[in-house]
Structure to design on (403 residues):
């Protein structure tokens, strides 16, 4: 697992949140590349001789260059501007462009066992989906994994079929039946990396399958490019990898699953090899594996007297990299509740369940926002979601977009 080790040796200290030992969270000054990228205001005002300035309309500039940086819900409002805008927004090229430009985590998909899924928006005005319960799918499902705007779901019925869908466009694909038997212990992760050079949707559903007759894991992968499964030759016999503690997630070519023995199982999609990382000894169910600026890290709530803090662990040894205090004057009466880490999103915000609330805590600004009420009558999984127009690809079914 040399590649896995090299991946994790990229220092998390490059993150401005983790570097600062003085208790502040200021951004690192921006580099000077902007000076070479942007022309002076004088040169920008000069158009080439063969282009007349009056021929360029602001609405054309916005449509061609600005719309792709907006979330899907906001984009859908612009369909009523004109027929030209409607045609442009509905085009596959624009969907591809928006998927590559907009990667801001917009909210959380959550689901209580036995109930329909729901969506928690970080900004209901800007981010949203038309059918958060995913009722456009042909049968009741459980949402199990999320990656860059696409969801991986599984049927609750007897065939346990997998579905890949986009909750914005209501496009979906039923995945062919796998080769191996995927029992209830099977843990999955959706791997989707938008690529500006790859126009078609290319993603993989990676499944860690526990063999029923022995203590071992096999990796079976579905590819959207071939619409088929393949079983990897690597067989995991590590005792620390069994059993897995639920589904995993994808980061930059690797899939990670937390194990019930206090370790992390990492799988290299390119080399199709696995490796084991140790979690900190104090890890517990209130902690969470998550992504921080493209790196794997582990968040662990800690309470000292009446003050909560979030411990951030990273690197190959999952050593303590930073302690982020959750200031009591910001949390108020919520300081008395149970704290559970959910995710680190958008390089600045910790999502936590504190008491009966889901809280977005902005680290640099020491600012707290109540996102939603939290369920306390059982374990609910929260999956970060990007409000994207990401295509599902061929072999899909599609219903109408936003009414």
């Amino acid at each position: 697992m040399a590649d896995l080790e090299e991946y994790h040796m990229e220092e998390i200290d490059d993150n401005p949140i983790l570097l600062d030992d003085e208790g502040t969270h200021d951004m690192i000054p921006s580099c000077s590349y902007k000076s070479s990228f942007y022309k002076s205001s004088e040169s920008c005002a000069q158009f080439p001789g063969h282009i007349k300035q009056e021929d360029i309309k602001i609405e054309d500039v916005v449509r061609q260059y600005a719309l792709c940086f907006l979330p899907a819900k906001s984009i859908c409002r612009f369909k009523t501007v004109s027929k030209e805008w409607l045609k442009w927004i509905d085009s596959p090229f624009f969907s591809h462009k928006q998927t590559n430009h907009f990667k801001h985590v917009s909210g959380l998909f959550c689901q209580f066992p036995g109930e329909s899924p729901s969506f928690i928006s970080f900004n209901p005005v800007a981010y949203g989906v038309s059918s958060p319960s995913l009722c456009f799918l042909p049968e009741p499902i459980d949402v199990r994994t999320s990656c860059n705007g696409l969801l991986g779901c599984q049927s609750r019925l007897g065939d346990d079929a997998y579905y890949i869908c986009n909750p914005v466009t209501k496009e979906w694909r039923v995945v062919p039946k796998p080769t191996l038997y995927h029992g209830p212990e099977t843990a999955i992760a959706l791997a989707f990396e938008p690529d500006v050079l790859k126009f078609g949707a290319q993603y993989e559903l990676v499944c860690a399958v526990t063999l029923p007759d022995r203590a071992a894991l096999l990796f079976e992968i579905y590819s959207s490019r071939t619409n088929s499964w393949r079983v990897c030759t690597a067989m995991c016999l590590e005792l620390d990898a069994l059993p897995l503690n639920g589904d995993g997630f994808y980061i930059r070519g690797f899939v990670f699953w937390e194990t019930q023995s206090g370790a992390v199982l990492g799988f290299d999609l390119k080399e199709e090899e696995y490796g084991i990382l140790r979690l900190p000894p104090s890890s517990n169910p209130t902690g969470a594996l998550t992504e921080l600026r493209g790196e794997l890290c582990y968040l662990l709530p800690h309470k000292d007297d009446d003050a909560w803090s979030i411990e951030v662990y990273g690197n190959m040894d999952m050593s303590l990299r930073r302690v982020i205090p959750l200031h009591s004057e910001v949390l108020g009466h919520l300081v008395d509740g149970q704290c559970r880490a959910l995710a680190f999103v958008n390089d600045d915000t910790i999502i936590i369940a504190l008491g009966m609330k889901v809280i977005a805590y902005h680290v640099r600004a020491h600012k707290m926002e109540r996102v939603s009420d939290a369920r306390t009558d059982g374990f609910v999984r929260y999956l970060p979601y990007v409000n994207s127009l990401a295509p599902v690809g061929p072999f899909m079914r599609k219903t109408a977009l936003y009414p």
About this structure: The CA atoms of residues 267 and 274 lie 4 Å apart. The chain has nine helices and 23 strands. The chain has two domains: 58-282+380-394, 287-337+339-377. Residues 287-337+339-377 form one domain.
